[in-house]
C-alpha cells in the first residue's frame, strides 16, 4: 500500500477534461497535473481513494512528442494555464475530443454521428497576449510585502507574476504603479484594453466580504474610465463592470460561425435569449428583419440599447426579464431563429421549455461549457430538434476551456440545411 509522499513511476496514457494526465499503476488510476499523454514520469503520491489517486509531478523521465517548454516560468504554480506544456495543435485536438466525449457521454449521442457533424477546433494564429481583461488579486507574501499575481490552483495563495503571457504587455507596468499607489487599500486590480482602439483602463478594487469581486468599491487609477472596442465593425462601450468577451480575435470567429449557422436572409425574426449587452444580438441584426434580445440584468440591457444606438441599428428590441415571461407579452413575435449563449451552467429547464414552445426552425446554441451543452442538446433533441452542425472555437488558448457553436433544426420544418461541414485541420 502506497503512502503519502511515496514516489511512483507512470506512463501517461490519457488526459481528463480538466487537463490532468492519467496513468495506471497495477490497474490503479492516478491523476497528475502538468502531464500529457506520452510522458513517462516520476510523481509523488498526494491522496488516494478506493480506485484512483492524485499525485504531483516530480520529474519527466521521457517527454511526450507533444510536450513543449512552457513559456511562463510560473505555469505550474499558477492555476491558470493548465495546458502550456502541450503543443498548440495538440491543444486544439484535445479540445475537440473534449467536446466529442461530452456529447457522447453526457448527451448520449452516437460517436460516429458526432464525428460526422463536429468540425475541427478553430484556433488562433498567435495564441498569446489575447486577453483584453484581467482581475489581478492583491495580497501579502510570506514576508508581509504587498504583491499581486494569480491564485495557485485550488487555493487563495497568490503566485506573484510580473508579466502574464495571456495579457497585453502594458498591463505589467500598470500593475506595478497601481501597487505602489494603492497597495494597502485594495484587494484586486481590474484592467481592460480595447484591442482595436488601444484604450486602456485600470481600477483599484476594494472587496473584503463577497466572492463577487466587482461588487466592491472601484477607484479609477489609470487610463479612461470607459473604453471602446469593436467586434467586426460594431463599436461597443465597455465600462468596468460590463460583460465583454475577453478574446477579441476569436470572438469575431465565434460570432461569425453563429451568423453562418443562423442562415439569415434578411427576412427572419431572431430572438437572443441570453443577450447580455447585445454583442451577439447586434452582430445578427444587420442580416435579419428584426432581432429581440432578452436579459434579466437591467444594466446589461441599458448597455445593449446604447450599443444599438451607437451603431445606428434600429431593428433591435431589448427586454429586461426572463425569456419565459417576455414571450408571454401580447406583442410577442414568433421567431424563425433562436440564439442562446448561456453562462457556464447552461440553459435552465424553463428556458429550454420556452425554446421548445417558441418552436423556431433553427436554434443556434453558443456554449462555454461542453458538459452542460451536451445535457441541453439532449433535451432539445428529445423534443423535436436535430443536431446538424457543431464547431469548437478556442477562445482560451493554454487552458482547458472551449466554446462551441451548434446548429439545431426543427425536424418538422420544411427548411433544409446542408449537413456538410468543414472538418478543419484539427
Describe the structure.
There is one protein chain. With 426 residues, the protein is α+β, with helices and mostly antiparallel strands. Helix content is 23%, strand content 30%. The protein is built from nine helices and 20 strands. It has helices at residues 88-105, 111-117, 171-182, 248-262, 279-285, 298-310, 323-326, 349-358, 370-381; strands at residues 7-15, 21-25, 28-32, 40-48, 52-62, 133-140, 146-151, 158-160, 188-193, 200-206, 217-223, 227-231, 234-238, 269-272, 290-295, 316-320, 337-340, 362-367, 385-393, 403-410. A seven-stranded mixed sheet has the order 16-15-14-17-18-20-19, sandwiched between helices. A six-stranded antiparallel sheet has the order 8-7-6-9-10-11, covered by helices on one side.
What topology does this entry show?
Blueprint: E1 7-15, E2 21-25, E3 28-32, E4 40-48, E5 52-62, H1 88-105, H2 111-117, E6 133-140, E7 146-151, E8 158-160, H3 171-182, E9 188-193, E10 200-206, E11 217-223, E12 227-231, E13 234-238, H4 248-262, E14 269-272, H5 279-285, E15 290-295, H6 298-310, E16 316-320, H7 323-326, E17 337-340, H8 349-358, E18 362-367, H9 370-381, E19 385-393, E20 403-410
Parallel strand pairs: 3-5, 14-15, 14-17, 15-16, 17-18
Antiparallel strand pairs: 1-2, 1-4, 2-3, 4-5, 6-7, 6-9, 7-8, 9-10, 10-11, 12-13, 18-20, 19-20
Helix pairs in contact: 1-9
